[in-house]
Write a structure and sequence with these properties.
By secondary structure, the protein is of the alpha+beta class.
Length: about 140
């Protein structure tokens, strides 16, 4: 199954609102640890951190504090596909103002349903933090 992705002007405006919310509400390392332990809700449970795109795509965006510095963190999933096509992930990365190419970012899959995975992408918020971040071997 192929899922077409078209990004509208309203999608662009919604993404900018999510980015602004993420910038004003950085997820701390302590919050990330609490999420991992199930003590607080995941970032994706907050509608201010996500947008629903046409034909079943969903994007969750946050700025996370990691041991190596702050990162942009994007999670992309699709309601009907095992995982979203890489071309769609690249388009959504552009929508959320990622600076690096997908191949230059830290990328991993995350189970989000019985038969679905999200693609997660992280890049340092500031370019000069890239080496420091990479020495920490990715998100902590």
């Amino acid at each position: 199954m192929v899922a077409v992705l078209v990004i509208s002007e309203s999608d662009k405006a919604a993404a900018q609102a999510v980015i602004a919310h993420a910038e004003a509400n950085v997820v701390t390392l302590a919050q990330l640890q609490a999420i991992d332990k199930g003590q607080i809700d995941a970032v994706g449970d907050n509608p201010q951190n996500s947008i629903e795109l046409i034909l079943g795509y969903r994007a969750v965006f946050s700025i996370d504090e990691q041991k190596g510095g702050q990162v942009r963190h994007l999670s992309v999933s699709h309601q009907d596909l095992y995982q979203p096509p890489i071309e769609a992930v690249r388009m959504i990365m552009d929508l959320f103002d990622f600076k690096f190419a997908l191949e230059q970012c830290i990328v991993w899959e995350e189970k989000v349903g019985n038969a679905r995975n999200a693609i997660n992408i992280c890049e340092p918020l500031k370019d000069e933090n890239w080496d420091k971040f990479m020495k920490k071997e990715g998100p902590q």
